[in-house]
Specification:
single chain; three-stranded antiparallel sheet; two-stranded antiparallel sheet; 5 strands; about 40% helix; AminoTfrase-like_pln_mobile; Serine/threonine-protein phosphatase 7 long form homolog; MAIN-like
Length: about 240
């Protein structure tokens, strides 16, 4: 999702997603992530380095990407007619083929909620567009795989990232889902010599991790050989 429609910023802020939405287009260093995955252990959900074990925590979720980490757990199963629920929330009733299992396909959201101008006729339509935008943000970025303000979206995102890290250690797995930008930001913050540059955070209105977006200096073409010799012996700040 490129660019955040200004018409729904207030809705995103109210729902607690105004911070994380700014990181949705974060460029990915796949080689750094691969090097980290090689140090991940399923038994402890930690990165095993020579000096000890380290992991990503709720603090990283809250500070780096600005997601809520307290509140109700995102665990409840949806009961009732799925199509009716979507019609009530989004104003459009999906057909049966718009669902995959219990989930709504992102392609359906992309088809019906791409341009805010089509939904900018009244406040109810804007609210519905904001809901669809948040669903796309969750599916495309936060819980990527192939809530409201009172819910702990950060807890769900961290648990999902742990799950995807565990799955990615399987030699048959060719990719990783979840908040992969958080892996990079966590590594850069904990181990400064991996940083593409040393940036100062001067915008308290945006997540701490968003400061990396102003940098255009780090390359997407770093090789794994650059990271592998460094990571096992890392000593964090």
């Amino acid at each position: 999702m490129e660019g955040v429609p200004v018409e729904i910023i207030s809705h995103l802020t109210l729902a607690g997603f105004a911070g994380v939405v700014q990181l949705a287009c974060f460029p990915i260093d796949r080689h750094l992530i691969t090097a980290l995955v090689e140090r991940w252990r399923l038994e402890t959900h930690t990165f095993h380095m020579v000096p000890g074990e380290y992991t990503i925590t709720f603090q990283d979720i809250a500070i780096q990407i600005g997601l809520r980490i307290d509140g109700k757990a995102v665990i409840a199963a949806v009961r009732g007619n799925k199509a009716q629920i979507m019609e009530d929330l989004l104003g459009i009733r999906p057909l049966d083929d718009a669902f995959m299992g219990s989930g709504l396909k992102l392609s359906w959201l992309d088809q019906h909620f791409t341009h805010v101008a089509m939904h900018n006729h009244n406040e109810l339509q804007l609210t519905r567009f904001a809901r669809a935008y948040i669903l796309r943000l969750i599916g495309d970025f936060m819980l990527a795989d192939h809530s409201s303000r009172e819910y702990s979206g950060g807890a769900a995102a961290l648990a999902f990232l742990y799950q995807k890290l565990c799955m990615s250690t399987n030699i048959k797995c060719s990719g990783i889902g979840g908040l992969t930008p958080l892996l990079m930001m966590w590594a850069w913050d904990r181990f400064p010599f991996l940083q593409p540059n040393n940036l100062v955070h001067t915008r308290p209105d945006i997540p701490y991790g968003a400061r990396w977006l102003v940098s255009q200096s780090y390359s997407r073409h770093d090789t794994r050989s650059r990271h592998r010799p460094k990571i096992p012996n890392l000593v964090p700040l």
